[in-house]
TrEMBL record:
Ranges for region Disordered: 112-133
Protein name: SDR family oxidoreductase
Domain NAD-dependent epimerase/dehydratase: 3-216
InterPro entries hit by this protein: Epimerase_deHydtase, NAD(P)-bd_dom_sf, NAD(P)-dependent_oxidoreduct
Coiled coil: none
Superkingdom, taxonomy of origin: Bacteria
Lineage: Bacteria, Bacillati, Actinomycetota, Actinomycetes, Kitasatosporales
Entry GO CC: cytoplasm
GO molecular function, a single term: aldehyde dehydrogenase (NAD+) activity
């Protein structure tokens, strides 16, 4: 299968591209710079120059492909305005990708976060929240899944709050960066809130399985660790960086503060059973031991 991938040079996207190429697929990857295009070529894929805002480029990528995996996002969390702009840009891009696939029966695999379920781990049947600072991303994914009724084999891989590799990535990676800058390895509240996690290499396998197998209109959980207490995550970060570990105000994390403070464990039991997905790489706390001081 020839697969058009957006976000193919990021932490997750680069592993997805390698997973696809290693399993007999070819890849056309969106590249917004010469540097990204060179990285795509080194990986063995073909670059398509453009960014998420270039909707005609996205449509041309769909036209050249047998399926699409959408991963790109601005990842600018510096202010509520920057985050809102990134959410709006992604929503327009995903709409363009989905509309270009209508009536083709080709797969579209998109991405969201795992939802929150009060008092228990969330499951694949729980709805995505459409409010809050990133609720617009859920709205776009729900719309994409709705294209199942219009001849698109759409599916969504729900990623946990931390997708990690070699001690970096995801919300745990943000905690590490903030700790380096502030001199404190912090956590909001009492730190008992739990974050699910997955190794990027395991997540990549699930994206491929969804592309190859997932029925239209379905959602899947790329969750290896159901939930690590945030104070335990901060504890490893603090020890590796030689910094004190303590509670800090949720406002420390800007627009992500309410999400960082929430208890959000998640399950992948149905995903594992239905798609045969089985994580094999190090869990989050073990992987964080690779943080360099």
């Amino acid at each position: 299968m020839r697969v058009f991938v957006t976000g193919g040079t990021g932490l997750i996207g680069s592993t997805v591209v390698a997973e696809l190429l290693g399993n007999g697929h070819s890849v056309l990857a969106l590249a917004r710079s010469e540097t990204s295009a060179a990285a795509v070529e080194r990986a063995g894929a073909q670059p398509l120059r453009g960014g998420l805002a270039d909707l005609d480029v996205l449509r041309s990528g769909v036209a050249e492909s047998d399926g699409v995996i959408h991963l790109a996002f601005s990842n600018d969390f510096s202010s509520p305005e920057a985050l809102a702009q990134g959410v709006a840009e992604e929503g327009a891009a995903l709409a363009a990708l989905g509309d270009a696939l209508v009536g083709s029966d080709r797969p579209l695999v998109t991405v969201s976060g795992t939802p929150v379920a009060a008092g228990r781990p969330s499951t694949e049947d729980d709805p995505l929240p459409t409010d809050g600072p990133v609720g617009g991303r859920s709205v776009a994914v729900v719309r994409a899944l709705g294209l199942a009724s219009q001849g698109v084999r759409s599916s969504a891989v729900r990623l946990p709050r931390t997708v990690h590799n070699e001690g970096t990535g995801g919300f745990a990676g943000l905690l590490t960066n903030i700790a380096r800058q502030s001199g404190v390895s912090g956590y909001p509240g009492d730190g008992a809130q739990r974050w699910p996690a997955v190794h990027a290499l395991d997540a990549a396998v699930l994206f491929r399985l969804a592309l190859e197998q997932a029925p239209a209109g379905t959602a899947w959980h790329a969750v290896a660790d159901e939930g690590d207490a945030v104070r335990d995550i901060a504890g490893v970060i603090g020890r590796r960086l030689g910094l004190p570990v303590q509670s800090v105000p949720a406002e420390t994390y800007g627009p992500l503060g309410p999400i960082f403070a929430a208890d959000q464990p998640s399950s992948s039991a149905r995903t594992r059973e239905a798609l045969g997905w089985e994580p094999k790489h190090p869990a989050l706390l073990a992987d964080l031991e690779k943080i360099q001081p």
